[in-house]
Amino acid sequence: MTNQIRVKDIGEGQKWYQTLLNRQPDFIPHEGFAEWEIIPGCWLQVAEGTPADASGPLRFGVSDIETERERLVAELSIEEFDIYSREEVPVKWGTFSDPWGNRLGFFVYVNKKEEKDRRKIILGQ
To answer: Which pLDDT tens digit goes with each residue over 11-52?
Structure first.
């Protein structure tokens, strides 16, 4: 699976997503394009181009959403990142935008056993 996000300037976009994901791209096949393998077989592509209107949100699972929100506020100056929950939903989630208007977010399992079990299934362990 791949999901592509477009940014107006690949240099700024790559730097921003490196900070978001806490690592360098896994693959840069050509100019104007960078890719990160989020989990085996699941790629996030950042491409130079015109951002799509009303895209997303694309949410990433994290272990501690509050800590990640604090990190993004400090490192990427994210201003709007509220965390939500509902009794009938097994996760807490939050959504924010990159500088190009792409909607992103994080989610975290409320039940840590469920989170551990899901990770095993997803990663084939």
So the answer is: 999 999 999 999 999 999 999 999 999 988 889 999 999 988
At 29, phi and psi to the nearest 5? -70, -25
CA gyration radius for the chain? 15
At position 67, the amino acid (one-letter code) is T
Residue 10: closest CA among 40, 46, 41:
46
Show Cβ contacts of residue 89 under 8 Å, excluding neighbours closer than 6 positions: none
Q: Which residues contact 12 (CB under 8 A, 6 or more apart)?
A: 99
pLDDT in tens, 48-86: 999 887 777 899 999 999 999 999 999 999 999 999 998
List the one residue out of 88, 115, 98 whose CA is nearest residue 21: 98
Counting other chains too, the contacts that 73-77 makes at CB distance below 8 Å and 24 or more residues apart are 75/19, 76/16, 76/19, 76/20
Domains belonging to the chain, first-starting first, are: 2-123 (3.10.180.10)
